[in-house]
Prior knowledge:
The protein has 315 residues and is α/β, with parallel strands linked by helices. It is built from 13 helices and ten strands. A hairpin with a 4-residue loop joins strand 4 and strand 5.
Amino acid sequence: MNSDKRLVAIGGGTGLSTVLGGLRRYFHDMTAIVTVADDGGSSGKLRTQLGMLPPGDIRNCLCALANSELKEVMNYRFTEGELKGHPFGNLCIAAFNGVCSNFVEAVDKMNRILETDGLVVPVTNENINLCAYLENGDIIWGESSIGKRIGREKIDRIELRPKCPAAVETAVEKILDADIILFGPGSLYTSIIPNLLVDGITDAVRKSSAVKIYVCNLMTQPGETIGYSAYEHIRAIEKHTYPDIMDYIIANDEQISPGLMERYALEGAEQVAVTKENFKGKKTVLKSGGLVSDNEEFLRHDVDALAKMIMELCG
Length: 315
């Protein structure tokens, strides 16, 4: 079963690209709007050395939607010499960034070269960085530093520097034209919310007649959401945008297998709690259960089940 609905997915990191790879089997008209706040690893090095926007999350999403044979080498990571640690795809995007007028044009060319099912669009063409304000008053600078921090002190809010960068026009147009807007799964404070702080994106989401769906992570994330329930994920998004931004939240309320739980617990993660009573009286409708993949090695959403649930919600 395939849907002719126009789907826009907003996020970044591995969560967005993993879901895109599965949803492409069900949706023909897809757009991924991707954050460009990453400052770690290969992306961070290319930002510093070439003054370009980070290509890593963009590369992952391009590969998830690609049809060209070139996708087979896009994620190849060099292991020696000065290129050690760089994926070929990051360098390829960097090369196009060098010959194109801007990063958005470079990504657009990559969409065509990789023959993507749908479109991958950076949320802004401006060089942005993240700043997290903790509840105890501490300030954490940089996307990679936020994710690596130790401790359970909660994040009060995040901001972009510079504040209110302009959105890419195509991103706004796709949101306004969408039938479905999907947020997540992905890092709440470093992949999802940063997109909504770009000038024009939240306004477009508010004006869009699309069904808005938040796919909650299966586990909490050290450095970002330790101790968070599904409801607190929504509260954080609303704090940075507007009340009742989501029509639905898709969250898992089934116990995750002990083996996987033990593995992720070693990293400090916990299963995201779903307390249905917290959602009573809110516009948001909770849909839960049957979302965990039976993969015994990695904890992932069952993308087939997720796609079917999305189509059910949107009619």
